[in-house]
Amino acid sequence: MSIVVTGGAGYIGSHVVRAFVKAGLDCVVIDDLSSGHREFVPEDVPFVEASLLDTAALEATMADYDVQAVVHLAGYKYAGVSVDRPLHTYEQNVQGTVSLLQAMERSGVDAIVFSSSAATYGTPDVDTVTEDTPTAPESPYGESKLIGEWLLRDAERANGTRHTSLRYFNVVGSAVPELYDSSPHNLFPLVIRALREGRTPRINGEDYATPDGTCVRDYVHVADLAEAHVVAARALLEGRDLERVYNLGCGDGVSVRQIMDAAAEVSGIDFTPEVGPRRPGDPARIVASGELAARDLDWKVRYSVVDMFRSAWEAGPTNA
């Protein structure tokens, strides 16, 4: 018996794979390496290089490895870029999920943990987001994740598919130095890249209605996130009931300036960040309650902002 991890060669997916291995659960990775890294997958974990759009390859993998459940992390994850590439985003995230669910149905696999996103909420008009906060995605990426949740709901109605969706907020840090966030868009790698290249990191707006004037967001460590996937997958495999959606947030946000302070402390580089104008559509504060996940998924926040930045700083191909 094994668990398929789609996107298991990516930053988050590779941490999830290692969490499964540590927990003694067999898994197999499917990834097309469009943004993942083959070296992120442990050598003793089976790896299949394939697109989610290749339903036959998915079916073959499920048969070859006696798959009983799926953790679905693969997808096109750049919300801002998705505005310029909507058709590509829907193809990868919506059609890819349809293909995966078709392969599961044909293979008799009826349990799936879905990697969703805080982007499903858009710009909520509440300070603390709960699972009952209305969804109003503002990008094709956010829309595609919400559609993914709908597809799972409909598969449950039609075929009895057991599922839960984990809505991520800002995932940062690293559990081991060889796994790192290589995104060209996320804040932590942008700050790290700037400092290593001798440039000054930038803050977009410092006149928000927050304690220090900069945007406040919910940041969670990737290792904590990975552990939640293990608990969710085990629950589904054991037939336990889960909520259909969980927010993986800490309920207490961190400001951009606090991250800059942590970067200076960890790196030893004394810098004053550049300040630019606000970016359109950036709300002042978005944090999420993780109460449901704490109740059902053993969700805990184990890292401070300094811990999170230090683990990111010490990871990656340029960590020396």
Brief sketch in words of this structure:
With 320 residues, this protein is α/β, with parallel strands linked by helices. The chain contains 10 helices and 15 strands.
Describe the fold and architecture.
With 320 residues, this protein is an alpha/beta fold. The protein has two domains: 2-171 and 219-248, Rossmann fold (3-Layer(aba) Sandwich); 172-218 and 251-286 and 302-313, UDP-galactose 4-epimerase, domain 1 (Alpha-Beta Complex). The protein contains ten helices and 15 strands. The strands form four sheets. It has a seven-stranded parallel sheet, sandwiched between helices. β1, α1 (11-22) and β2 (27-31) form a beta-alpha-beta unit. The longest helix has 22 residues, at 86-107. The protein is globular. The mean pLDDT is 94. This is UDP-glucose 4-epimerase. Pathway: Carbohydrate metabolism; galactose metabolism.
